Structures are given as structure tokens and as C-alpha cells.
């Protein structure tokens, strides 16, 4: 199973709750419509107020870890092809401007072994 992780930072003027509400109510349906080739789509929201960090380490500089799973390599390839379409990425970026810092997003491709 191939997974793509995204480390995403909210716009500073939004509260954690506003960020989460916008993401779930607006961005998730958009992504599901534009990129239907994934098998699972999870969001893991950080609880900055209740997280424990080592004193010698900085707190994470992101607010959510988004995880998209692909059942087959061909599905991942279709995802890459779709996000390479200028009209698709323009629609995604336009929505992102409402709630997150696009330039701060980090993407990691991982493969899960159990």
C-alpha cells in the first residue's frame, strides 16, 4: 500500500477549530471530487495545547498530518497525473488559500509494511 503524507499548516489568523471546520466541510469534499483514486483519506489534527514535546526540541510547525492511501501503484500514478493538470491544481490552490499556507505544506511518499 502506498501512502502520501502531507504536513499542513493553518493560516495564523484561524483558530484550530476554524481550520478544522473549513478543512472538513469544504476541502475534503473538493479533494474527494477532484481526486477520487485514493483508497483512504485521513486527517490527524495536532493538539498543540496538550501535546508533550521534549524540552530540547521545537514544537511541530504544522497543524495536521493528512494521509492518502493508494491501493495500487497505478492509482498513485493517476493521482500524480491528475494533480499535474493545471486546472485541477489551480482549483485546489484557490481553496487552500482560504485556510492553509500552501508554501509550507510538505509532502512525503511512504510505503507501509506491517
Could you characterize what this model shows?
- The chain has about 110 residues and is an alpha+beta fold.
- Helix 1 runs antiparallel to helix 3.
- A 4-stranded antiparallel sheet has the order 2-3-1-4.
- The protein has one domain (about 1-45, about 60-110): Alpha-Beta Plaits (2-Layer Sandwich), CATH 3.30.70.
- The protein is globular and about 45 Å long.
- It is built from 3 helices and 4 strands, in the order E-H-E-E-H-H-E.
- Helices cover about 35% and strands about 25% of the residues.
- The chain has helices spanning about 15-35, 75-85, 85-95; strands spanning about 1-10, 40-45, 65-70, 105-110.
Could you outline the blueprint of secondary structure elements for this entry?
Layout (H helix, E strand, L loop, with lengths): L1 E7 L7 H19 L5 E6 L18 E7 L2 H11 L2 H11 L9 E6 L3
Antiparallel strand pairs: 1-3, 1-4, 2-3
Helix pairs in contact: 1-3
